[in-house]
Amino acid sequence: MMQADLDVVVIGAGLSGIGVARYLKVNCPGKRFAILESKPRIGGTWDLFRYPGIRSDSDMHTMGYAFKPWKNAKAISDGESIRDYVQECADENGLTPLIRFEHRVIRAEYVSRDCLWTLTCATPEGEKVITCNFLFSAAGYYKHDEGYLPDFAGYDDFRGTIIHPQFWPEGFDHAGKTIAIIGSGATAVTLTPTLAETAKHVYQIQRSPTYVRARPMKDKVGNILKTIFPGQLGYSLTRWKIIWEGRMRRRRFAGDIEGLKAEMIGEVAKALGDTVDWKTHFTPSYWPGQQRICAIPDGDMFDVLKEGRATMVTGHIDRFTETGILMQDGSHIEADVIVTATGLVLDYFGGMEMTVDSQKVDPGKPLIFKGFMYSNVPNMIYFRGYTNASWTLKVDLVAEYACRLLNHMDRNGYTQVVPVAGSGDFATINTASLFTSGYFVRVAHRLPKHGTSFPWIHKQEYFWDRKTLKRGRVDDGTLTFSTGEGIVFPPEQLAGTGGTGRDIAAE
Predict the structure, then answer these.
(1) Does the keyword Cell inner membrane apply (predicted)?
(2) Where would a tag sit more exposed on the chain, N or C end, judged by fewer CB atoms within 10 A?
(3) 264: CB partners within 8 A, 6+ apart
(4) Average pLDDT over the chain, rounded to whole?
(5) 188 in helix, strand or coil?
(6) Does pLDDT of 439 surpass 80?
């Protein structure tokens, strides 16, 4: 068996990757590992997105790490503070020297007879090859160098400035300008009140309404708990308070979805009063929970709408014109700047090609194993958070489990672990999805699949994951351990790709 350069490689030095690396260092102290980061800095999403007002859309007491208290008074925090938190974690735990910056993994090839991953990385000095026995992918779920742009007509006709939030120009001065923001998600509802502070006027154009909910920027009860019980205890109490509040809220989703919808829309109606047509602009056609609910910190977006500094526009865009946007109803929105907050391009493998014993791993073919591994792909764990709760809650659980898995393999002399799926497992693929966000729906055919029975299902539910990952046995019979058995994909996991829409690249 070939000797690997490293025991483990962690891909990504963002919020997930740094947290995973800390678990690895503490719980598996004998492992040799490195972190590969495609950019020259730590931070991932919180380094990439630098548009005005960038902030979390989850409470930082649960989006922060379980092991590292969030000390900032703001629970809904600005991007710079989150980036500093990630950097501080890396420095405190001696992880920064282990990061190899500007190493983008372009190919990952696994050979079962050697239990070895060979990673080909693009670097400023050319391609480099790194080998490892185990791969931890914390590369996120979207492409960092591309953003989604719908096929609107007339892009080239517009004489003003077009900006995608993923590539916000450094130092861009929007003061005194009329701005049209296209979008209805978290990015749009963040940009609207922020840009309205100094813009001449802001129009937020949405095809259809999204659920929004005002929430305090600061968690008063949480901050009191952290004052009374300094350090980890106060943070943990605050964290559990928020986790239980989320659980109760999700139970309401299931128990009285119609009542919850009426309550959420009623809150918006009360906040806006008669100053804004909330029935048109804030009454979604789908149920709460089918897309992420956008947080409105301290009601900032409602304030600028009521004050007339921003205007909601709901309808379909016909085309861009020389001076703005023409809507299908014939109305025209004049603008100096158009911001296309139109979404992400999902990318489940971090942009790398992957093979197992010379068989191509197509992202749209594998089954998802318990929400952190792919069918028939050995010695690899991916880290991806929740769509209905804070991202890091799931990452913490998977990272802890991953370390237990590695330690179990070491104790028993195993060098390979794989969630084996056969044709029978693929025969019961669940193609239905309750999550209807555009960035997910338009590429759903290219994403790993859910089965209909355990272990090929996973729930977007923290307590289910605690039972499965934190308290569940590693050797529960669902994983196959060996010292290097060959891997043969069933026909259902071979070949086939596809895609839709238009993607734009950073220039």
Answers:
(1) no
(2) C
(3) 211, 213, 288, 293
(4) 90
(5) helix
(6) no
| Conformation bin of residue 53: beta by default, left when phi > 0, alpha when psi is -120 to 50 | left
Residue 46 CA: distances (Å) to CA of 19, 49, 89: 14, 6, 14
Superfamily per CATH, domain 6-144+345-505: FAD/NAD(P)-binding domain (3.50.50.60)
In the chain, where does the domain assigned CATH 3.50.50.60 lie? 6-144+345-505, 150-210+256-341
Query: Is the pTM of the predicted complex or chain greater than 0.85?
Result: yes
pLDDT tens figures, 133-171: 999 999 988 888 888 888 899 999 999 999 999 999 999
418 DSSP β-pair partners? 480
Is 3.50.50.60 the CATH classification of the domain at 150-210+256-341?
A: yes
Do 343 and 183 form a contact (C-beta atoms < 8 A)? yes
Q: How far is it, in rounded angstroms, from Cα 79 to Cα 43?
A: 10
CA dist list (Å): 173 to 51, 177, 178, 199, 324: 12, 9, 12, 9, 19
For 225-239, what is the mean pLDDT? Answer: 93
Give Cβ neighbours of residue 123 (< 8 Å, ≥ 6 apart): 102, 103, 104
Contacts of 355 (CB under 8 A, 6+ apart): 107, 108, 109, 110, 361
Cβ–Cβ < 8 Å for 189, 209: no
Query: Residue type for 262, please?
Result: A
Query: Once rounded to an integer, what is the mean pLDDT over residues 65-82?
Result: 94
357-388 confidence digits (pLDDT tens): 999 999 889 999 999 999 999 999 999 888 77
- Of 182 and 433, more confident: 182
Mean pLDDT for the stretch of residues 460-470: 88
For residue 184, what are its two tokens?
């209805």
Tell me whether strands 142-148 and 201-206 are parallel, antiparallel or unpaired: unpaired
Distance CA 207, CA 202 (A): 16
